[in-house]
């Protein structure tokens, strides 16, 4: 009996203990769930949820004439969530019904593997319940548009599991054109160059955020949990695509034909300082030329004889000489403290300062500078400082700009020969842009303008900031000095003895400028005969009487270059560029349309504004019978035109329009707005269309255009 009581007591005790423990566990569970639930749920989410950045759409870069120089195009990464509820409901019926047709569509679109392979891979991923299966990366917008209509995909994200992750890819539509100036936009902003770097803070916009859930080894976006980014601003450059194209082609032609190492062409608008073009080309190991460095802004060199303008201005401003003063060049050879300076053409003795400048006498300018500034060198270097040759140019591309080196008597390397050598372009280092600023100031009545590359900041098509021209030096010299300097610069081209006369002189319009042929050391190995090469330069402005543009051309030749002198190399490039600019922008005389009477009727179609502009330019009388709409059909007979809007041009009409005779751009615009799908063969204007004009069509129907 006692034993039975003892056993029961122990059983009861165990039961009570278990009951108490159960109550404690249950109470603790309720406490954690009800009281601490929000804390632990937040802790769990923090381990599986994470905010990741969403890049804003980067702003575009435009030329001043409205062309796009750099922009972002959308590319798409495509993933599939095989754990999506809509994809797995009813034992995966939706997936199984569509996987074969989806595979066929994917194979036809990407053409990278057979449909059977796609089907096998998709079924395996479905079986493994992969939550973020990478189907395809970096597909184009056209491919993305096509994919949206594929089986399964068109049922939406929740039912198909398809996840589209859009991002941007930076492209330069004009490729090589001003490539180094526009710059490159890389994933790491610190690796950007050019305007892409200088204006990066404006172009990149404000980054957004997207909530991502960590699952199956990768992050998946949580739909609806996004903070939208703020898109970047657009910038409008001062560049003109026509001038840039002309400069690039002229430079490329000379570089290739002359086997040069590298070169630059800079075109500046005289009155404002706007840089209208900047071309830079460097030779690569395989013999091709690309825009590898910004030689016009980022490379300082000894300028050679183009620096004589600074010496001339200093001598004239201090009234030590006039351009009629006589200087003895001593046959073209003279020693200064044991170092010999010589002219490229020997044998001349007495000549005027003007003649010395037009013939580019090294001896004359070395001798004059030594005579008047040898004992007062700071007087000369102060002039160079006033010309801002010792300062950064201030151009927009800050990171790429090279710092100039102008010696002063305080420099340890200063010697008795420094002044005569500086006077004709050695023992100083400046960029082509520095020299162009000086020449442009002479052309601009002494007013030195700040060079700049961006004229406006734009947001959604509206200018929010305009950059105005800025004066750096109101007057670099007196009017008397400037008049004499301009006379010398004009003589370089016009005079029969001028170094640029044979190459640059032209009777249609006048050019003023200066040639330069500087001896440089190849690979910094010294100036001995085997290593020295020549840098050819020509800097000037036109038309001489009322300058509109200033141009600097600086080309580094190689030992294999057939042409080496400034006029023969850079002068030819200058002339080709200035001819095109003069013909396109300055000599813009309208020509009257004087065709004889023609009784035959000419019919064409196009935009009303385009046709009206053509008629106005050719002084053709025309009549527009339509009161609205953008499209017109034109009839021209006996030098008189009439325009009307045919019914088949109306966008709402399901009648095929007649696009024969149109350019491709107009034809595509008109037909696509009507809902037709277009295929094109050939080049030129439309000469045939597969759907007859005036016949009815259905939306989405194909039409083939033949161009010739």
Structure explained in plain terms:
The structure is a single chain. With 708 residues, the protein is an alpha+beta fold. It folds into 3 domains: 55-237, Alpha-Beta Complex (Penicillin-binding protein 2a (Domain 2)); 241-586, DD-peptidase/beta-lactamase superfamily (Beta-lactamase), CATH 3.40.710.10; 602-707, Trypsin Inhibitor V, Chain A, CATH 3.30.10.20. It contains 22 helices and 31 strands. The strands form 9 sheets. Strands 2, 3, 4, 5, 8, 19 and 20 form a 7-stranded mixed beta sheet that branches. A 6-stranded antiparallel beta sheet has the order 11-10-9-24-23-22, with helices on both faces. A 4-stranded mixed beta sheet has the order 25-27-28-26, with helices on one face. Helix 10 runs antiparallel to helix 20, helix 12 (308-317) packs across helix 14 and helix 12 runs antiparallel to helix 18 (479-494). The longest helix is centred in the N-terminal third of the chain and has 33 residues, at 2-34.
